[in-house]
Task: structure prediction
Amino acid sequence: MKTRRALLLLALAAALPAAQAQTGKWPDKPVRVVVQFPPGGATDIAARMIAPRLAEEYGQQFVVDNRGGGGGTIGAEIAARASPDGYTFIVVTSSYAANAALYKLPYDPVKGIAPISMISIFPLILVVHPSVKAGSLKEFMELARAQPGVLNFGSPGNGSLPHMAITLFQQLSATRIVHVPYKGDGPALADLLGGQIQLMMSSGAATDSYVKAGRLRALAVTSEQRSRAKPELPAISELVPGYSADAWAGMWAPAGTPREIISRLNQSVARILKLPDVQVRLRAGGAEPAHTTPEEFARVIARDVAKWTKVVKAGNIKVE
Result:
């Protein structure tokens, strides 16, 4: 019995340095950073801002791999099913949490991943076509209530964060606005500029130039409080208590990824988000750096999954 125990202890002692060496030399080959949407969107921009700086720090390529489709579920499933060896990560947005309410996912979106950190947080902007006879959020709400089902709003698709954000707005403000889903933010914005639809929620990066040119009118932000980037715009919560629909970007790994690697990456993201050029780039797009611990990011995901599940059920939202 003692001999067997001694052999077991020797085996464990031998295995420990080997495991430490495996994570200690990480990474010794290129690392894949999955993005759940095509190139050019907010998620892709966040990933391509982080990846080259991680490459500089670790001396290995961090290759951005765009895997769009299924409202972001395809890329997320690829990352969730990847080997937890520290060579696959994913950058997601808050639509990841909404997808948990809309799709039957083959993994647990909260417990089946290893959160690393949030990267940024930014409000969506409620913008309307100039033909809409409302110069403020208050006037817009009065107009929407007086004409239920007359105004149309566009979104990048069923279940997208802009769709969910306006659905929540309707549920809390007693308004009824018709949803027109598009295949992406670009086509929806084009129809808004053309007057085919009357409003949408989008990022400041996508709409600022049109607002400045007078082609769109910005009425409010979706953050719980006024945005540092848009202090002149009221938060919707000022007139609709309890409303908030911030967008965020964050990074996670497959469940089971060594804790040491998660911790090292978390510290790396913290350093990157403190770089002046990174902060300037984020704020130019209306976002704020938002480093968190893995545990804090896990709580944000769980909170938003619960929140959007309620919105989906109340609004009877279904994906096509």
User: Anything to note?
Assistant: The chain is about 45% helix and 20% strand. The first helix runs from residue 2 to 24.
